[in-house]
């Protein structure tokens, strides 16, 4: 029997997003059509986009690989891996591509080198169909700039939007993102702000595929369950939510702003 109450409402929203194949902020990654098309069509651009998804709005992050391409003329990993100074200049020239102006170039160069050395220069070799969710997550974690939060997010996007068929969906989870955490706390689904508590709550609600809740919780947190002045009446969780709006995530910040 599917869960009822606020957990059921969140799961219903997650399944709706999954059914529609949502990218992250809609059916595309960003309002820049060319930038979104690049992420859609080039696995390497998707991987580099994951690097960008920290500390800036999601739409701007996913436009990053296309702007990098415009500034350098290529996002070929062999080139990026061997032209660190050029990558740094491209990121840092006004308007800067990212607030992490010194860190992001190192991530890009390091990720490009790993792609060349371990995956034949093709990021799709990181996530071949039929591999296990945890195996793909572990591979992503070896890339500089990708921690557990980004890896979990990327795996869910690969399955939900790109329809990569991975085994072990029951081993997936939600990202420990500030928006996700806020929603789980304010809705009463989790009693503590910790990865263990948030992930355990996701497993209780959707044991066969906990990651189904990831994008739903993130969108609710970003769009309506805001840190200040939450828009409870417009929230997808509606009347099911106990609206514990005095609670919020504390400490570790979010990545998908």
Give a brief description:
This protein is mainly alpha-helical and 257 residues long. It has helices at residues 5-20, 33-41, 43-52, 58-72, 77-81, 84-92, 103-119, 133-141, 148-160, 178-186, 195-205, 212-223.
Could you explain the architecture of this structure?
This protein is mainly alpha-helical. The chain folds into two domains: 5-21 and 170-240, Helix-hairpin-Helix base-excision DNA repair enzymes (C-terminal) (Endonuclease Iii, domain 2, Orthogonal Bundle); 33-126, no CATH class. 53% of the residues lie in helices and 0% in strands. It has twelve helices and no strands. Helix 2 (33-41) crosses helix 3. The longest helix is centred in the middle third of the chain and has 17 residues, at 103-119.
Beta strand count: 0
How many domain units? 2
Give start-end ranges of low-pLDDT stretches.
Answer: 253-257
Q: What value does the Rg take, in angstroms?
A: 18 Å
Largest sheet: none
DSSP helical segment count: 12
* Backbone shape: globular
Average pLDDT across residues? Answer: 94
Percent helix, as a range, is: 40-55%
Oligomer: single chain
End-to-end C-alpha gap = 34 Å
Order of helices and strands: HHHHHHHHHHHH
* Percentage of residues in DSSP E strands: under 5%
Structural class: mainly alpha
